[in-house]
Fold this protein.
Amino acid sequence: MSRAAGIPEAKLADLNRWRDSEAFSPIERLVLDYAESLTETPVIHRPDLQDALRQHFSEKQLVELTTGIVWENFRARFNRAYDVKAQGFSDGAYCVLPERHPPLST
């Protein structure tokens, strides 16, 4: 599978090392940093990160981005709570496990 949802294979392959990968733009790294911060338990509120995001996205876009991130986090946690198993829809696709890193400085 060379592409999933329009995402280049290089990005899928490098997702677990997005901080160091040249496959991601600075804005994509900022978004991934935001996604990680919202996925932490407890959630890490970083006003500096939100300020940096506001330089690239409108408030409406940030609401949509945040909603997408937290919705996927909700689904993942809900599936764990009810032991929902994979349904085979992404067999053969990438499933990159995240590595723990300190937040990027902005």
